[in-house]
Amino acid sequence: MDSETQNGAQHVSIPADGVVLSGEYMQVRGGSGLVVLVCAHRGNARRRAEQLLIAQLHRSRIMTLRVDLMTKDEAAMEVATEQVRQDVERLAQRVRAVDRWAEKRRLREGLAVGYYGSGSAACAALRLAARQKPSIEALVICEVKGDISAPHSGTQADAELICDLFRNWLWWEKNPRVRVHRPPRVDDRPSAAP
Questions:
Q1: What is the pairing mode between strands 19-26 and 63-68?
Q2: Rounded distance, CA 28 to CA 138, Å?
Q3: What is the pLDDT of residues 103-122, one digit of tens each?
Q4: What is the spatial distance between Cα 173 and Cα 111, in angstroms, rounded to a whole number?
Q5: N or C: which end of the chain has fewer CB within 10 A?
Q6: Secondary structure, 3-state, 153-174
Q7: pLDDT tens digits, residue range 7-58?
């Protein structure tokens, strides 16, 4: 059941792959786009960076959905096994379920939808899901840090840069007449992952 959180975000439940994923959906007045932040972790290592990005996107009137690709039970087991995080196919199936949720919003509210991957597992799942479902044709930005335990896991400047990329992408999506042609889709771009 969906409910509202203290910060005004709507708690959403998304059925996927025999489990229910939890997410926070935040609408903004006059929003013209939706950025889906997917992560495959339950820890706080990247949470600050995600919060900075979400705040910056909201200031830019871009709605957000932050969703974990793992359940609480899976995250508890993940500490010892890393079984789910390494099952990229399973995570990609879950990304496709999240995409179905976002697609309903896109059709109902006329939103452009973009994706942001937080962590290498979420990034891998996004890439695989986009390959398997060509309709996932959106800007995909993946944040992969070499040292996850670094105390500076995200800065305001990082959030502003990523937000600028999403703002530019939204402008591009809303102005199709300025496009001469779309560049060919490149499935295997070099990754920043080590």
A1: antiparallel
A2: 20
A3: 898 888 888 888 888 776 77
A4: 10
A5: N
A6: CCCHHHHHHHHHHHHHHHHHHH
A7: 678 999 999 989 999 999 999 988 888 999 888 765 555 677 788 888 889 9
- The gap between the terminal CA atoms of the chain, to the nearest Å, is 39
Residue 15, strand partner residues = 20
- In degrees and rounded to multiples of 5, residue 149 shows phi and psi of -85, 0
How many of the other CB atoms lie within 10 Å of CB of 87? Answer: 14
The structural domains of the chain, with segments of one domain joined by +, span: 3-178
Using alpha carbons, list the distances in angstroms from residue 158 to 9, 36, 93, 95, 163: 23, 17, 29, 24, 9
d(CA 126, CA 130): 6
At the topology level, CATH places domain 3-178 in Rossmann fold (3.40.50)
C-alpha span between 8 and 29 (Å, rounded)? 12
How far, in Å, CA of 46 to CA of 56, rounded? Answer: 16
181: tokens are: 């042609």
Q: Residue 92: what residue type?
A: A
β-bridge partners, 68: 39
Specify the pTM. Answer: 0.75
Task: Check if the beta carbon of residue 114 is closer than 8 Å to that of residue 60.
Answer: no
